[in-house]
C-alpha cells in the first residue's frame, strides 16, 4: 500500500518516495554449538529455512554455503571495504541471497532458533563492514536480488526494494520523468536498505530533508519474522 502525503504534494518540485523492505532484527547470541565447518549443523539450519519459507519460491537456490563454488564471489560482491576482506576475517556460516520475502522471514526465525547472528546486507557500504563482519558465528541475509523499483509518476510515489542501489533509483525515476527526483545520497552504489534505515542526506537535503523524511510506507519483517 502506498500512502500519499499532502506535504509531499505541496512541494514546488515534484518528489518520488521510495518504499523499502526494512528488516528489524535482534542480534542472536553467539552459539556454542554452531560451527562454520559442521556439515550436520548446516543441514539442520537449511532444513529450518526450507520449512519456514514459501515452497513455491524454493529457498534452496538462494543458499550459499562455504562448499559452494560461488560462495566467495557472492560474499565479496558487496564487501565494499577491503579492510574487512582478509584471509583472517571470519567468514559467514552461509549466505542467503533472498529471492522472496518469505526467505527474509525464514532467516529471522531460523537465525534465532539456531543461535546464529544474522547480518543483513543491502549495498554493503557500511563503513565498518557491519553488514558482513562479525565476531561470532553468523550468516548473511543478502538483499541484492530484491531490488525492484516501481515508479508511479501519477501518484509521485515509488516502491523500492531494499537491495536496490541509489543510482538505480535515480535512473528509474529519470527514465519516467525529467522533473522528478528523490532526496538521497551522492554515491550511486549505496544500498537503499542501509541508506534509508540510517536517515540519510544528499544534495537535495536543504530543500527536502533527509531520505527518511520522504518515506511514506514500508513493508517490514519484525523480529518474530512477521511481515507488516
Ligand atoms: C562511498 C560511500 C558514499 C556514501 N555517501 C553517502 C551520502 O552521500 N549520504 C549519506 O547519507 N550516506 C552516505 N554513505 C553512508 C551510507 O549511506 C551508509 O553507510 C549506509 O548505511 C549504507 O547502506 P548499504 O545498504 O549500502 O550498506 P550495508 O552495509 O548493506 O548496510 C549498512 C547497515 O544497514 C543495515 N541494513 C542493510 N540493509 C538493511 C535492511 N534491508 N533493513 C535493515 N537494516 C539494513 C546493515 O545491517 C548495516 O548495519 C556513504 C557511504 C559510502 C561507503
TrEMBL record:
Keyword Disulfide bond recorded: yes
Ranges for domain FAD-binding PCMH-type: 88-228
Signal peptide annotation: 1-34
Cofactor: FAD
PROSITE patterns according to UniProt: FAD_PCMH
Biological processes annotated in GO: cannabinoid biosynthetic process
Gene Ontology MF terms: FAD binding
Family statement drawn from the similarity comment of this UniProt entry: Belongs to the oxygen-dependent FAD-linked oxidoreductase family.
Designated name of the protein: FAD-binding PCMH-type domain-containing protein
